[in-house]
Design brief:
Elements: H1 3-16, E1 31-36, H2 43-47, E2 54-59, H3 66-77, E3 83-89, H4 99-110, H5 124-136, E4 147-152, E5 159-161, H6 174-179
The structure holds zinc ion.
Zinc ion binds near residues 61 and 93.
Length: about 180
């Protein structure tokens, strides 16, 4: 039995007591969350979100890619959200490699260097600042006034807000350094 089979058993139990039929499509809280895919981030639990409350967009690192902007455009323009929450976290895998090294490794194995960026970053707080800057620079998003970014501490469950106005340093922050090893 695969892990997927086990999870399908879980779904049968979930569906047996399901009572959320009729939940509207537009998120009730008017919020879109962009978060890392890390398995330790239980985004709904971290923010106290219920079914129907928010859009949750996830990828490796929770980085702002063109495809994340695509989802945010639909979230804002078609489904009425006007706030964005960004969540990176301590001990993120994206802190542990560089794009160039992994792309070289992939090329050595496959003969093809990926055309896409892996978007690794050396500092979670700085990457949150860059993410906010990318969003603010996007002409496709009508609502860019309420964007806040956080680093989630996987050791305590606490969200630490990132000061978006601080200069990008490129340095490893104390927060990350103290928990990444
Ligand atoms: Zn991560």
């Amino acid at each position: 039995m695969s892990a997927t089979d086990d999870l399908l058993d879980n779904n049968a139990a979930y569906a047996a007591s399901f009572n959320r039929a009729g939940t509207p499509t537009p998120p009730a809280r008017g919020v879109a969350v962009v978060a890392c895919m890390d398995a330790r981030l239980h985004v709904s639990a971290i923010l106290g979100l219920e079914v129907g409350d928010a859009h949750i967009i996830r990828n490796a690192g929770g980085v702002i890619t063109d495809d994340v902007i695509r989802s945010l455009v639909i979230s804002q323009r078609l489904l009425g959200t006007d706030e964005i929450i960004l969540i990176h976290h301590t001990e993120c895998g994206m802190l542990t490699f560089t794009d160039d090294a992994v792309k070289a490794q992939i090329k050595a194995e496959t003969g093809i260097r990926p055309a896409f960026a892996l978007e690794a970053f050396p500092d979670a707080e700085d990457d949150i600042r860059q993410s906010i800057a990318r969003l603010k620079a996007s002409p496709f998003l009508p609502h860019r006034d309420h964007i806040r970014g956080f680093v989630y501490d996987v050791g305590t469950g606490v969200l630490h807000e990132v000061d978006a106005d601080r200069e990008l340093t490129g340095a490893t922050s104390g927060l990350i350094e103290s928990t990444a090893h």
